């Protein structure tokens, strides 16, 4: 998924909490 790629490219900038917010 796009979110997964973003998380891999910027792991330090995007925390899991941020990813959860994107999912919501």
From TrEMBL:
Listed name of the protein: AMP-binding enzyme family protein
Organism: Vibrio harveyi
């Amino acid at each position: 998924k796009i979110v997964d790629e973003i998380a891999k490219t910027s792991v330090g900038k995007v925390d899991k909490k941020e990813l959860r917010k994107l999912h919501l």
